[in-house]
Design brief:
GO terms for molecular function: NAD+ binding; prephenate dehydrogenase (NAD+) activity; prephenate dehydrogenase (NADP+) activity. The protein folds into three domains: about 170 residues, 3-Layer(aba) Sandwich (Rossmann fold); about 100 residues, 6-phosphogluconate dehydrogenase C-terminal fold (Orthogonal Bundle), CATH 1.10.3660.10; about 70 residues, Alpha-Beta Plaits (2-Layer Sandwich). Helix content is about 45%, strand content about 15%. It contains 14 helices and twelve strands. The chain has an eight-stranded mixed beta sheet, with helices on both faces. A four-stranded antiparallel beta sheet has the order 10-11-9-12, covered by helices on one side. The protein binds nicotinamide-adenine-dinucleotide and prephenic acid (PRE).
Length: about 375
């Protein structure tokens, strides 16, 4: 396929792509570059890259493709710095969360015989850095590609193959449409989560027990607020206009609910909530990016060391394949709940049987 891919930015996304590509054994040289020496060391130790360097020329001069996985605000500077070292027909492939501004900024810099293809994996996490990297992060995720002028058929085919190699599914669209959509499905949720966390913080200054009562609903709706502020600053500024439109729309919906409450309009409340319930059910469940179709169990376990390995060990011994594990414990030193998800119903049935026989409290979700 190609001999060398260089990943610039060995954080959550670069590290995860490196792990998936290295594990595939289809790319002889997966090379890493980062400004942080410790990220390079960890990436090499984890097997995300075959070797890494803080020397930019060394990192990219033999690369068939350079994968940019740094915050959006860093991309332009990096492209400027690597261009003099790239060989002809090298593909620059970025995975930034916004596309239109970024590609407009990068495109004029790209010389003939160098290709530029924009991409965005719709999978990630609130955890920044290589420590959160995972080889299966992109499994079944949608991976948007926004090829434009500085591409050709062969370069695009290569990038599609790379995306499929990491387990993701390609979706082509224009950078403009991509940015309009992610303003709603990704950027607005982050900003709402931020506002929610800060609102409850204010409340807790007055009512100190507020955090104690914050349970699943609060946790589920605010997880993303734990994301890296620098990454989100860059995303927010780069997709500013679309985000502002989405905030306007969100404010309108919230204002309608506020008004309905002020006039105590019971019917309208039911109408709005029912509509939301139906709309959420309509989100496709086939892909990981939306709501994955999984079979779930909730396991109640005492907060003791080793419980997770006892559970996973007993399921593993019987070849039950767990697709997701989530610790739902809200407070330390108390009984906690673990959510186990399976892709096959037969795995769920088997897990239920094994855990019940061990006297572990478990129920279907
Ligand atoms: N986190 C997500 O959920 C997610 C999902 C899809 C796409 N993205 C996009 O992927 C990109 C990377 O995000 P991430 O979550 O991996 O961030 P991260 O903070 O985990 O990793 C970024 C890495 O880039 C390095 N870096 C920063 N500036 C650099 C520079 N000038 N030169 C070399 N290395 C540099 C950092 O040291 C760090 O290791 C961003 O553009 C982000 O918008 C993120
Ligand atoms: O935290 C997650 O689960 C994510 O997938 C993060 C998420 C998202 O909003 O969906 C965040 C930003 C990226 O550009 C893509 C994905």
């Amino acid at each position: 396929m190609m001999n060398q891919i260089t990943i610039i930015g060995l954080g959550l996304i670069g590290g995860s792509l490196g792990l998936a590509l290295s594990n595939s054994k289809k790319i002889p040289q997966v090379v890493g570059y980062d400004i942080g020496l410790s990220s390079i060391q960890e990436a090499v130790a984890k097997g995300a890259v075959h070797w890494g360097t803080t020397g930019l020329k060394l990192a990219v001069e033999h690369a068939d493709a350079v994968l940019l996985a740094v915050p959006v605000g860093q991309m332009k500077k990096i492209v400027q710095n690597i261009l003099p070292f790239l060989k002809n027909h090298c593909i620059i492939f970025d995975v930034g969360s916004t596309k239109n501004d970024l590609l407009q900024e990068l495109s004029p810099m790209i010389p003939p015989k160098i290709y530029l293809i924009g991409g965005h994996p719709m999978a990630g996490s609130e955890r920044a850095g290589i420590s959160g990297a995972h080889p299966y992060l992109f499994e079944n995720a949608i991976f948007v590609l926004t090829p434009q002028g500085h591409s050709n058929e062969q370069a695009l085919k290569t990038v599609v193959e790379l995306v499929e190699l990491v387990g993701a599914k390609v979706k082509m669209m224009s950078p403009e449409v991509h940015d309009q959509i992610v303003a709603g499905v990704s950027h607005l949720p982050y900003l709402v989560a931020v506002s929610l966390v800060n609102t409850v913080h204010e409340l807790s200054e007055e009512l100190v027990d507020a955090p104690l009562l914050a349970a699943g609903g609060f946790r589920d709706t605010t997880r993303i607020a734990g994301g890296d502020p620098v990454m989100w600053r860059d995303i927010s500024l780069s997709n500013r206009d679309n985000i502002i439109k989405m905030i306007d729309s969100f404010e309108k919906h919230l204002a309608e609910i506020k008004n309905t409450l002020e006039i105590r309009d019971e019917n309208n409340l039911i109408h709005t909530f029912t509509q939301a319930q139906k709309n959420r059910e309509q989100i496709p469940i086939t892909y990981r990016g939306a709501l994955p179709e999984v079979y779930e169990l909730l396991v109640t376990v005492p907060d003791q060391p080793g419980m997770l390995s006892i559970i996973t060990g007993s399921l593993g011994n019987r070849s039950v394949n767990i697709s997701e594990i989530e610790v739902l414990q809200v407070r330390e030193n108390q009984e906690g709940t673990i959510r186990l998800a399976f892709q096959k119903k037969s795995d769920l049935d088997c897990a239920l049987d094994i855990l019940l026989k061990q006297g572990i409290p478990v129920k279907r979700r």
